[in-house]
Amino acid sequence: MSNKRASFITSFGQGSGPSPVLLAGHLGQRGAALCNLARLKLPVPPGFVLNTEACRNIASSDPATVENIKAMLAQGLESITTETGCTLGDKRNLLLLAVRPSAPISFPGATEAVLNVGLNDETVEGLGVSAGDHAFAYECYRRLMQNYAQAVLGDDPAVFDDLLNLYVEERGYVSAREIRGTDGPELASRFKAQIESNNDRAFPQDVEEQLWHAVAALARNWQSPRAKQKRKLHGLKEDAGLAIVVQAMVFGNQSDHSGTGHATSRPAQTGEREVGGDYLTNAQGSDLDARLRQVLAIAGPAPSLETEEPGAFAQLASALDVLEHELKDAVEVDFTVAQGALWLLDARPARRTTSANLRILTDLVAREQITKHDALMRIDPVALDQLLHSTIDPAAKRELVAQGIGASPGAASGIISFDANEARVLAGQGIAVILVRTETAPEDIKGLHMADGVLTTRGGMTSHAAVIARGMGKPCVTGASSLRIDMEAGQLKAAGVTLKRGDIITIDGSSGQVLKGQVAVTKPSLSGDFATILTWADETRRMKVRANAETAHDARLARDFGAEGIGLSRTEHMFFEGDRIIAMREMILADTEKERRIALAKILPVLRADFIELFAIMAGMPVTIRLLDPPLHEFLPREVEEIEAMARNLNLEVAGFKKRVLELREQNPMLGHRGVRLLLSYPEITDMQARAIFEAAAHVQATTGTGPIAEVMVPLVASRGELSAVRARIDAVARDVAKETGQKLEYLVGTMIELPRAALRAADIAEAAEFFSFGTNDLTQTTYGISRDDSARFIGEYTNRQIFPHDPFVSLDVEGVGELIAMAVERGRQGRPGLHLGICGEHGGNPDSISFFEAVGLDYVSCSPFRVPVARLAAAQAHLKLARKS
Ligand code: PEP
Ligand code: MG
User: Fold this and answer.
1) 284 lines ligand 1 (CB under 6 A)
2) Which atom belonging to ligand 1 lies closest to the Cα atom of 775?
3) Which residues contact 608 (CB under 8 A, 6 or more apart)?
4) Which of 470, 757, 758, 774 is 20–30 Å from 355 (CA)?
5) pLDDT, averaged in runs of 10, over the chain (886 residues)
6) Are residues 234 and 268 in the same domain?
7) How far is the CA of 753 from the centre of ligand 1 (A)?
8) Would the CB of 271 count as within 6 Å of ligand 1?
9) What is the spatial distance between Cα 866 and Cα 464, in angstroms, rounded to a whole number?
10) What are phi and psi of 540, to 5 degrees?
């Protein structure tokens, strides 16, 4: 055998298969599995794999290579003949073949198989004699013709089903199971005639021709646009290769002691070590998938495979044991029982739910089959989300109204409310509500708190609604731009559907779907395995994980999910609670500093109480409090009626008041008078916030004996000068409070890095900052020049057309924004050795981004509380990956 030839096929048989090192991807999943099974001396019908290179050559039809491959096929056949003693086309010792695709991963309908290759008008008689059953022989022949017509000739298989049903009717049979051997020739000739009339050519009687056409068709079908599309849907590359398995047939349809089934070493729902699966007697594989008849359980009370075929069951259970031990994973197999004997036809890692996966992995570690690190690497961190949130029941019917962006995971149903106040009132009455808005504003916060879910027609992953909903662990869909809200009519309109205020909808914050009516939702349940896995992650990771939280509720949640501090407390949300908004508005509208200070003095005690609560909950852990960031107009009413009502409440003259509100309104609020700029214009805001923080810290220190680690963070800094000026006031307030309370206060002052200039000038800025926290939401926005609130309008198209590999507001743009971060890390540490570095943008909870943050050496990531478990695991994986690389 020449080397070139040897590279095209790999034979396997009873007790013989190539060693696992040779099982490269070019054999496909099934091909590699069969070689493995054979090597482990498990029962597989002998055969060979035509590798991906051979299949590519067949598809491209280079004549010399095709001849070469045909010669290879002949050789492969010889080895099957040697193993079985049967020959293709030999009526007395008949070899029949199964030709099956072997894709890189197993997925339904990869391409169709062709079974019973080798039957023709003559050999079918031979099979009838050797099996002692002509009905069976002709059934096999019909199946071959139907498979061949579909896979090789592209015929519609339903035509052949109709042909069969018609015949059954003509004969007055109740079902096709009554077809006798004597019916065989007649039915076979109808099938042949159908093929000829469909294709103007006869079904080939030459058995070698059958084999070649079957192989060539499978190779070519894999290159069809439809197959490429299917591959894409299953996450495979368009140019992924196909291998083909050619194997001796074993028959599950020969008697009631035969059948076909799928079995697993651990059921997909539980992951517990018990044999599961299903089985169909007297049938072949595709019958099982089509669920033609009642299927039996593999194990358990009668009737099951265990009770009907105890010998085959025992063999199967022991094969699953061997395989699980060998693959160090839960496995599932496809099998056939032929006259009581077991044959395995495929094996692969078992499908499983996320909670079952955790059960499997902790059990494999307990059995010392894998290490804790192996277990950690085998979990998709994002999948943990499923365990923390409600999900739509996969079996439920979905009536799609619109597709938006899945901005905060979880599913919820409720009545439509277009008004945050109304939502709050309804929810207070125990009614499930979905708050539906064009976009949300900070003043909607109470409605958001109470609603079961949020839907906005604008916005993206980092818009207000998305950030708040994620923080609260509430389902949220943003950017559902095909929906139109008609506030006047109280209607929500989509293509062909009009929904009214009070109608029920369901939103799926994972997929971004908006569904009509109430759809069944399944609640999360946390197992002990979840905690075990996260403990292993904690032992492994280097980076700390903090949470973004400002309310006591979120802070407690964050701590329960394992956060090691608060990385971002957005204080603006604290200004909306209760009567504070009134004082805040008084402060904004005040004409003099004195008036402003009077208004701020009203807010101080409530803010201090908030901080006392936060410090107490996070006892001893760092809490980063960001000073006021958004532009002031966000605290003022937007609608004319609201402005007028507010003027009346405040006893102000309406026209003058309206003018002032309009003056404060910004067209470009994200780049305008916000963050440190605002703190410099209104230093009394800085003073008040700093005082609230330090008085709270002093109180907690005095009452509990443990001083909190307060980190005061200044937003939107572009230069050292800005930070130094604000810092001077913070330090001054700290000194005053220390003197007044007699407490020695430990605190840090730092800044967010969320502008490109801040990253460039990091060395300089670090001299005035004890820590940096990368605000990657704003840093992405300002680096790209794309408003984070409007990006959803076109980013989807960008990613679909692969202009951007992914949405940079979701997964960090490592090449651009990442380079700025890497530079700021290096320069920052040059400016101040030991500078503490973290990230608090939404990317802090994104596993790919977390890998990058590990690589550049950040000290911690901070993300919304529900994302903390995901980040703990992702940080561990990032650390292991980096360690394995170096
Ligand atoms: C950021 O910009 O990344 C950030 C965390 O701040 P915010 O989202 O509040 O602007
Ligand atoms: Mg920001």
Assistant:
1) no
2) 3
3) 691, 692, 695, 696, 699
4) 470
5) 55 74 77 93 95 86 82 92 95 96 78 91 96 93 95 92 93 88 94 95 96 94 85 79 95 90 91 92 73 75 90 96 95 95 95 92 97 97 87 87 90 94 88 92 80 91 82 88 90 90 94 93 81 97 97 92 96 82 88 92 94 95 96 84 81 84 81 95 96 97 92 98 98 98 96 98 98 98 90 85 92 97 98 97 96 98 94 98 90
6) no
7) 10
8) no
9) 17
10) -95, -40
Residues 577 and 445: their CA atoms lie apart, in Å, by 9
The helix or strand, by DSSP H or E, that contains position 711, with its residue range, turns out to be strand 709-714
Atom 6 in ligand 1: which residue has the minimum CA distance? 775
Which ligand sits closest to the CA of 841?
1
Is residue 23, in this structure, part of any structural domain at all? yes
**Could you tell me the CATH number of the domain that includes residue 760?**
3.20.20.60
Whether residue 346 is found in the same domain as residue 406: no
Ligand 1: which residue has its CA nearest to atom 9? 570
SS3 of 295-306: CEECCCCCCEHH
Structure tokens at 425: 């009132």
Catalytic residues: 464, 840
Strands 476-478 and 484-486: unpaired
Distance CA 834, CA 133 (A): 83
- Residue 513, phi-psi category: left (phi > 0), alpha (psi -120 to 50), beta (remainder): beta
Determine contact, residues 6/51, Cβ cutoff 8 Å. Answer: no
- Please report where in the chains the tokens 């879910």 appear, as a residue: 453
Domain boundaries, position 506: 389-522
d(CA 141, CA 86): 18
Cα 787 to ligand 1 centre (Å): 13
What type of residue is 543?
M
Q: Whose CA is nearest to atom 10 of ligand 1?
A: 778
Same domain, yes or no, for 177 and 230? yes
The number of distinct structural domains making up the chain is 4
**CB 840 near ligand 1, within 6 Å:** yes
Is residue 383 a part of any domain in this protein? Answer: no
On whether the CB atoms of residues 586 and 599 are closer than 8 A, the answer is yes
Q: What amino acid occupies position 541?
A: R
The token pair that represents 737 in the structure block:
């409070």
Could you identify the atom of ligand 1 that is nearest to the CA of residue 548? 5
Is the same domain home to 273 and 407?
Answer: no
Distance of alpha carbon 462 from alpha carbon 697, whole angstroms: 31
Residues 480 and 615 in one domain: no
Give the pLDDT of residue 3.
Answer: 37
- For residues 775 and 838, membership in a common domain is answered with yes
781 within ligand 1 shell (Cβ under 6 A): no
Residue identified by tokens 């280097």 is 542
Contact status, residue 721 vs residue 767, Cβ threshold 8 Å? no
- The ligand 1 atom at the shortest distance from the C-alpha of residue 841 is 3
Q: Is 777 in the pocket of ligand 1 (CB under 6 A)?
A: yes
Residues 298 and 429 in one domain: no
Residue 346 and residue 221 share a domain: no
Candidate of 754, 813, 817 to mutate for ligand 1, largest count of ligand atoms within 8 Å of Cβ: 754
Q: Which atom of ligand 1 is nearest to the CA of 773?
A: 5
Ligand nearest to the CA of 572: 1
Beta carbon of 844 within 6 Å of any ligand 1 atom:
no
Do residues 737 and 699 make contact, with C-beta atoms less than 8 angstroms apart? no
841 C-beta closer than 6 A to ligand 1: yes
Report d(CA 416, CA 492) in Å as an integer.
9
Q: Of the residues 568, 626, 789, which should be mutated to test ligand 1's pocket, given the most ligand atoms within 8 Å of the CB?
A: 568
Helix, strand, coil shares, percent, the chain, to 5: 50, 15, 35
Q: Are 228 and 204 in contact (CB under 8 A)?
A: no
The dihedrals phi and psi of 506, each to the nearest 5 degrees, come to: -125, 135
Residue 753 CB–ligand 1 contact under 6 Å: no
Nearest listed ligand to the Cα of residue 573 = 1
**φ and ψ at 402, to 5 degrees?**
-160, 160
Residue type, 521: V
Token code pair at residue 525: 């349940």
